[in-house]
Amino acid sequence: MAIIGLVLATAWIMAWPFEKAVYLAPVIVIGGAAAVGQLILWGKVAAQSLRESRRPKLVLALWLAGIALLVVLSVLGVKLPREG
């Protein structure tokens, strides 16, 4: 059921026909598993970093401020300058 849900969600997000998403199901599942693995890994890294810091509340506040800044700039559509 999880695989079918993942395939349906991918077909809807990418505006693909369901048949195309079914053909790509192995790639979608492996990509989804890799994304979940990355989230778990970086979650553990962040938790360990917070535990080892002297001022975890300050570190957490700075992380949240940085993420909020990225979200706000993305919503506003700010384009960063590119080299070249």
Describe the protein.
The protein has 84 residues and is an all-alpha fold. It has four helices and no strands. The chain has helices spanning 2-14, 18-23, 25-52, 56-76. The model has no long low-confidence stretch (mean pLDDT 91).
Number of helices: 4
Query: What assembly state would you assign to the polypeptide chains in this entry?
Result: single chain
Beta percentage is under 5%
The total beta strand count reads 0
N-to-C order of helices and strands: HHHH
| Shape, per Cα inertia axes | extended
Q: What structural class is derived from the secondary structure elements?
A: mainly alpha
Helix content: over 70%
| Major sheet | none
- Integer average pLDDT: 91
Structure, briefly:
This protein is mainly α. It has helices at about 1-15, 20-25, 25-50, 55-75.
Protein traits:
mainly alpha; 4 helices; 84 residues
Q: How is the topology of this model organized?
A:
Blueprint: H1 2-14, H2 18-23, H3 25-52, H4 56-76
Helix pairs in contact: 1-3
